[in-house]
Amino acid sequence: MAVRKIVMYPAEILEKPCSKVENFDKKLGKLLSDMYETMIEFDGVGLAAPQIGLDMQVAIVDIEDDSGTIELINPEIVESTGEQTGPEGCLSFPGLYGEITRPYYVKVKAQDRKGKPFIIEAEDFLARAIQHEIDHLQGVLFTSKVSRYLEEDELGGVEGE
Ligand SMILES: [Zn+2]
Description:
Cofactor: Fe(2+)
CATH class: Alpha Beta
Largest sheet: 5 strands, antiparallel
Function: Removes the formyl group from the N-terminal Met of newly synthesized proteins. Requires at least a dipeptide for an efficient rate of reaction. N-terminal L-methionine is a prerequisite for activity but the enzyme has broad specificity at other positions.
Radius of gyration: 15 Å
EC number: 3.5.1.88
CATH topology: Peptide Deformylase
Bound molecules: zinc ion
Oligomer: single chain
Strand order of the largest sheet: 1-2-3-6-7
Structural class: alpha+beta
Organism: Robertmurraya mangrovi
Number of domains: 1
Keywords: Hydrolase, Iron, Metal-binding, Protein biosynthesis
């Protein structure tokens, strides 16, 4: 495994929709391991492939709860309800935090590292983290959704995604 370099804003790769993954091979497994190591190294709760310079619909989320590390290949939100507003940060925007309103609940269809389809339901912070990563795969950055930027003393331990 290896820690990859994080792509910082501005960079073209961060603002374009990523290509679907078609080959569920050993290389993909290796990539997911590297993404995990990179996310841990930089204290993130999620990481998307374009953030390490790859045009692939691959993201991981780990908010350090019972859900463990969630690997999302070609994810798609199929249902969302409710609303939540809270702080978000992004590993591609070090030191920048903002308040964002998103659905409270999402149902997501994705594939695992072997290509097997699965459905995951999430709410609250986990749903927020998943939506942040899926946005990355569509070239959408959190800054386009921030309603108010936050000062450091308003944060209280927000981690990047
Ligand atoms: Zn991010």
